[in-house]
Amino acid sequence: MTDILYGHNPHPNIVAVHPTEDNKMRVYVRDKKQVSFEDFDFFPFFFISENYLLTNFHRRHWVKRLEGENYFEHIVAFSRWFDMWDYIHNLLNTHNQQTGKNLSSFTDLPFLHLIPDQITQFLIQSGRTFFKEMDFEDVHRLQISIETYKKPGTRLSNANRSDDRILYIALTDNKGWEKIIGKKEKSEKEVIAQLIEIIRDRNPDVIEGHYLHNHILPYILKRCELMECEFNIGRDEKSPTVCENLFYQQDFQQDSKKYEINGRNFVDSLSLLHNFDASGKILHSYNLKYVSDFFGYPSKTNQPDEAISDAEAADPVAECLENAKRIRYLTGSLLPNYFKQAQIFPYKLDNLIDTGSAAKIELLLIREYVHNKYSIPKPQSQKQISGGHTDIFLRGVIGPVLYADVESMYPTIIIKQNIAPASDILNVFNTTLQELTKIRLEYKNKFQEDKNNQSHYHIQRDFKQLINSYYGYLAYHRGLFNDYDMADKISETGKEILKNVIEIIQSRGGKIIEVDTDGIYFIPPEHVTDEIGEEKFFQRMKNDIPQEYNLILDSRYKKMLSYKKKNYATLDYENKIQIKGSALISKNIERFGKNLIQQCIERILNDDFTGLHIFYVNLFQDIANHRWQVQDFMRIETLKESLSRYKKEVEAEKRNRSAVYELALKSGSKYKIGDRIAYYITGTDTNVTSYENCKVADKWDPNFPDENTSYYLKRLEEQTKKFKPFFDEHDFNLIFSLEESLEDLNDIVKSKIIEVSEEKEQEDGEIQKDTTPEDGGIWLATE
DNA sequence: GGACTCCGTATACC
DNA sequence: ACGGGTATACGGAGTCC
User: Fold this and answer.
1) A552-591 residues near strand B (Cβ < 7 Å)
2) Which residue from A188, A321, A499, A514 has the least number of CB within 10 angstroms?
């Protein structure tokens, strides 16, 4: 039943939806080249639990008792959006009177469940979704790039300054059309008028830009405001509206503006990139040229027959057009993923882009429950559940190494064991997971067939993430259908599977290095000496585990530096090094420390101990003699709460003082949440209290360096200490000392491997407790 | 005053 | 508006000798 996944209404070719003034929903449909619309009834609704229904509400509404015994067993519907809110205000008042509380928001009413977005409500109610029966290229997408003038001497163009203005606007679309405006037009007002005319004429479904919400739209709207003209580009001929995303973080209001336009979708390539690289480890910047090149934009410099002249490169008009093309390329690669998702989830395209997985999963459930007129549950109260299994067996420099993992372990467990929330009577959870898995595999195969098609890669990647979130949803404290027992069952099953694989590897003569949740690093048995042997060994091993779980040989490595649980580095057969773990790559470490760790890992993995020694000596002396830049030793931290809240908490002794906040308070300038402050440690004593001895990085003067050398030398030692376990003490002291060795260190120093459980015994001097598996000691005796 | 523990925060892995 | 648990590093504050 794919209706459960796509919604039960087959209405094709929907490209936009918005509410009209008379409380209908206007649905725009693209047929070949024309866009038409039709208005449909819309009944705003919410879920409510018995006993809380109002008896004295006289505006038009319907109360429906839903089937089943889940907590929210009534749905209340209205003919007008305003009436629904009226009802809710009455609910709040009644509740406040009865309880003496002073609740101000519907989110505080535990007996009410409301989906706050009108369009999403409509899509749930009607079973419609966007883009059914359409191909991605059928959607008409327009890219926009603006070139602004800035007053000489200023850093950025400012729409508020009368001198600054829009010079050119470049427009492209996915049909290959391109246009520059601002060359012929006499005034900025004419440029904007021309822009509006073009948008209305071309009539795109999607308007795309880089920094669309933070730069392009606010700039254009500000200029329109100053010139007292409308930017009415909506299909209803209205202007964009701002949704001040007023989400409150403690006592501080953080504003992030988003714009909406009736009848079209605004897509900011920045959001797509942010979703692509949420951890911030892949992309080094969001600069348009950099990111489009990263995704493989065929730039002119790569095409010798179309050589780019210097004049052209410096031409702002050409550059502006080039930017629009780069946006088109970027969204062409990243947007199909959301196009596909929009066919499934009841969201308007632009809302879908910044929605989390839990919300998506939940709306699939709710849509089906509404369709079946079935009651929906409330969240279970929070409870600690078990997680994945992690362990480390060997520390040191080890090779060769294999990495095996159970493919999509948690989702597979859910499907194979038919796990679903107890409240999910209609079995939507498991059904949708299976359907989403099919789609993921379909796109994974498509990508295997054509590796040039990046959009297939992105689709399978995001669907994989979504599928993996099904486990997280079960333990999500706000999830209506959460079920902690089921989440527990999944992670316990996962632990068993992993322990089973560990035993199999050990029984076949392999040695485990490190395991985490669903993957295992191990040394193949000695008789396995090459890639073919490894593959054969793995296949034999694989036969020992239950067929429904797919164990795969994910990768093989020349060497591995195993440090602690979740902290290691690998060296592959192309000599590429990958470092993992917060102890080894944390952003919290100063740049010099990060460099040091990287050098240590690189040189240890390559047996270059002499080089490492020289590097260490040089670094030590650079620090001791202030031969470095503030960027090398400053630390950057983000203000995570408001200064007033910080002060309050410190005074109440609920929180420790912290250097960044003290600096922000001292400076007197206005800092807000999210601001980043770079600072360094001053003073002379090694063990200074950092919040009393710190300065903003800008104030460091290379001519009068006042950084705390002794503190930073201590930091240096702290980082090098991490590598102590890899050597005998004598060897370690040869590398990390200032003295010159008479011999070549590469001839005498050797890195070593330690059995971690043995080490534990030695350090603690304790009898080993039964925390390790009963067979843990058997194979340790070998070698 | 140093060594130790405890605790909260930040970051990373899967 | 918001998936989860497991793990390491680190600074501050309190405790003990």
Assistant:
1) 566, 580-582, 585-588
2) A499
